[in-house]
UniProtKB/TrEMBL annotation:
Function description: Catalyzes the formation of acetyl phosphate from acetate and ATP. Can also catalyze the reverse reaction.
Cofactor: Mg(2+); Mn(2+)
Note on how the cofactor is bound: Mg(2+). Can also accept Mn(2+).
Catalytic residues (positions): D147
Residues bound to ATP: K15, H207, L208, G209, S210, G211, D282, Q283, R284
Domain of life: Bacteria
Name of the protein described by the UniProt record: Acetate kinase
Keyword Nucleotide-binding appears in the UniProt entry: yes
Species annotation: Secundilactobacillus angelensis
Residues the entry annotates as binding Mg(2+): N8, E382
Native organism taxonomy: Bacteria, Bacillati, Bacillota, Bacilli, Lactobacillales
Subcellular location as annotated: Cytoplasm
GO molecular function annotations of the record: kinase activity
Annotated family: Belongs to the acetokinase family.
E.C. code: 2.7.2.1
């Protein structure tokens, strides 16, 4: 039995899961929240329901990693830390350098740092955690799992923007996508549930959460995705605008007398569902208020509309569709939103069975048996994808 640790690091949180492999059983999982702030919260959960929680002020990145390893040993989750045979890290930006996950050596770590220009809020922190775990467990191999790797070889007709070509050659100005680890897992799992090879299918996967993205798979290859150079592009999201006329951004910056960087911040954090509703970025809040709050209803309608537009365009690109797959927070739990989206796609043979759709966070086909397109809910599991990559690349 091999134990592999999956690490998903953010600026204010450290999420992790420890797996037993190859049986893919979660041994323990945890979260360190409010990093570098008063009242940092360290939480560990076991599959049997046992939970440990500790509050401590200003837990920094190094202490967070050390606390995870210390607790694993002190709680008897592992007898010795050398039982951990590998560590996998979610890395946002791999540019065009990494078309697959990679074992981290000095060269790869340097490249992850250099790719920070494409993900300045994520790559530096994720690289720092790699360095911290290298120091804490120097003999344990580490693997970088890149969100963008799935889209590296996407056809150039969809990957490139219609701007001067030298901007792509000189600055890497192209569509990189995001949520690739989630889309990779969900597409493969959907194919398993359908009992067909992914290479035989035309799929559209909908990762609908606080951040939302849509990807189109043509016989196992991604041909298009909604997020772009950054995760700001694509469909409307909880607080992100999604696609918008760039001239409007310049126009508003002049009107508001703010820098372009401030406008980008507004598009990232004050737009989307929150911006339209002026109430909440959470779909559940908006659904509760939509009967009496016109802006809440408008926000939900706009969100569904943008998703429907992308699905329609991807069906055209794919020249058909075998399955539509919902995942992530809203995709897995949004019963009403799934129905709202499907109802606008009936022309394409997309239907939802009302009774089957009454499901949250569970694998299930939610279309009628007679429907020409299978509609499914497949909960994502990025951490499982990460540890599978660690095992694939290190256990040879």
């Amino acid at each position: 039995m091999t134990k592999i640790l999956a690490v998903n690091a953010g600026s204010s949180t450290l999420k992790w899961k420890l797996f037993s492999m190859p049986d893919e059983t979660v041994i323990a999982s945890g979260l360190v929240d409010r990093l570098n702030l008063p009242g940092s919260i360290f939480t560990v959960k076991r599959p049997d329901g046992d939970k440990f929680e500790e509050t401590q002020d200003n837990i920094d990145y190094r202490l967070a990693a050390a606390m995870v390893l210390s607790h694993l040993k002190e709680a008897g989750i592992v007898k010795h830390l050398h039982e951990i045979a590998g560590i996998g890290h979610r890395i946002v930006a791999g540019g065009e350098i990494f078309s697959d996950s990679a074992v981290v050596d000095d060269a790869a770590l340097k490249q992850i740092h250099e790719l920070a220009q494409y993900a300045p809020l994520h790559n530096p922190i994720e690289a720092e955690y790699i360095e911290i775990f290298q120091q804490l467990l120097p003999n344990v191999p580490q693997v970088a799992v890149f969100d963008t790797a799935l889209y590296t070889d996407m056809p150039k007709i969809n990957a490139l923007y219609p701007i001067p070509y030298q901007y792509y050659k000189e600055y890497g100005a192209r569509k990189y996508g995001a949520h690739g680890t989630s889309h990779r897992y969900v597409s493969a799992r959907a194919a398993e549930l359908l009992g067909k090879p992914l290479s035989d299918l035309k799929l559209i996967t909908l990762h609908l959460g606080s951040g939302s993205s849509i990807s189109a798979f043509d016989h196992g290859k991604v041909i298009d995705t909604s997020m772009g150079f950054t995760p700001l592009a694509g469909v409307m999201m909880a607080t992100r605008s999604g696609d918008i006329d760039p001239s409007l951004v310049s126009f508003l910056a002049e009107k508001k007398h703010v820098k372009m960087s401030e406008m980008i911040d507004i598009l990232n954090h004050q737009s989307g569902l929150l911006g339209i509703s002026q109430l909440s970025p959470d779909q559940r809040d908006l659904e509760s208020a939509q009967d009496t709050n016109p802006q809440a209803k408008l926000a939900l309608d706009m969100y569904a509309n943008r998703i429907v537009r992308y699905i329609g365009s991807y069906i055209a690109e794919l020249n058909g569709l075998d399955a539509l797959v919902f995942t992530a927070g809203s995709g897995e739990n949004g019963i009403d939103m799934r129905a709202k989206i499907a109802d606008q796609l009936s022309y394409f043979g997309i239907q939802i069975d009302h009774d089957r759709n009454q499901v949250r966070g569970k694998e299930q086909v939610i279309s009628p048996d007679s429907a020409p397109v299978t509609v499914m809910v497949v909960p994502t599991n990025e951490e499982l994808m990460i540890v599978r990559d660690v095992q694939r690349l290190t256990q040879k």
